[in-house]
Amino acid sequence: MTWHVAEEDLRAYARGELAPPLLWSADTHLTGCARCRARLADAVDPVALDAGWERLDAELDAPRPGLSERLLVRFGVADHTARLLTATPVLRRSWLLAVLSLLVMTVLAVHLADRPTLFLALAPLLPLAGVALSYGPSLDPSYEMAVVAPMHGFRLLMIRTVAVLTAGLAFNGLATLALPEYGLLALAWLLPSLALTATGLALTPRLGPVLAPALVGGAWLTLLVVAHLHTQGTPAPFTAAGQSAAAAVAALATVLLHRTRDRFDVRPVGGFPEGGAL
Q: How far apart are CA 43 and CA 154, in angstroms?
């Protein structure tokens, strides 16, 4: 080979400043000329070369956003918020399919028994369970990253809660459409659902992300059993008075949650305590 890349062009190539068509010619020549490749290695700044390799490693190691994350970003959601939303455990396919299957079986049971009580009792528990499973050291695989993230703990909880409630209420709403014969009664799960979720969140700083929703769910089931034993018709929580009470509880719990929002930033080792105040 009688031609080699000129020294000046080689230095410009190393700096990334060589323009076509000399760039194309140098590229083609360097693939077959060991001598010019050795000269190029001597011309490259070691600091710049290390920085380039670091950028390449960072780009290769960076997680690729999934379909849901890309859609959220396209609709205007910030990158970091979209990542937190898609990392929410209960928004995964297995959970959503399980919830959908449970609602379908419940709707079928309601049609067979000709009573919507089973659906009305179950529907409010699904958002409560979803929120409980979206936050906490023992349930959230991304909890450690959330702890060190420069974000208010309450804001993270609200982002996860909105995502879970949106998915859960959407599924519950679709199931409600399958019960048109019950009219407005088929929507009587909505206010209790909001009341249970808000109450569970409000109690989380004191009781922890597992015990708080468990106690709230248990209290709801106990209330339904007592109401069933003392009422012949529609259970009390689904009457006008019961709906008003659920709205009042939801409002009160929301106020309490807002007042205690700073306590979600107190994150001792192991997360929130299972009992006692922080």
A: 53
Q: What is the pLDDT of residues 41-83, one digit of tens each?
A: 887 777 766 776 677 666 666 666 666 667 767 777 777 667 6
Cα dihedral 215, 142, 158, 99 sign:
negative
Q: What is the pLDDT of residues 102-137, one digit of tens each?
A: 778 777 777 766 678 888 888 888 888 887 777 666
Rg (CA), the chain: 29
Residue 271 zone, left/alpha/beta (φ > 0; ψ -120 to 50; rest): left
Report how far residue 231's alpha carbon sits from residue 225's, in angstroms, rounded to the nearest whole number.
10
Question: Is the sign of the CA dihedral 246, 260, 144, 137 positive or negative?
Answer: negative
Residue partners of 72: CB distance under 8 A and separation at least 6: 81, 82, 85, 86
Could you tell me the end-to-end alpha-carbon distance of the chain, in angstroms, rounded to an integer?
A: 77
Q: Which residues of the chain have pLDDT under 70?
A: 1, 48-49, 52-53, 56-69, 72, 80-81, 83-98, 112-114, 135-153, 265-278
Distance CA(125)–CA(252), nearest Å, equals 19
Alpha helices in the chain (DSSP H): 7-15, 22-30, 34-43, 46-61, 67-74, 79-86, 93-113, 117-122, 125-132, 143-148, 153-177, 190-207, 211-230, 240-259
For 91, 109, 132, 142, 153, the CA distances from 88, given in Å and listed in that order, are 6, 30, 11, 8, 14
What one-letter code names the amino acid at 3?
W
Q: Is the pTM of this model over 0.70?
A: no
Determine the pLDDT at residue 273. Answer: 41
Over 10-30, what HEC string results?
Answer: HHHHHHCCCCCCHHHHHHHHH
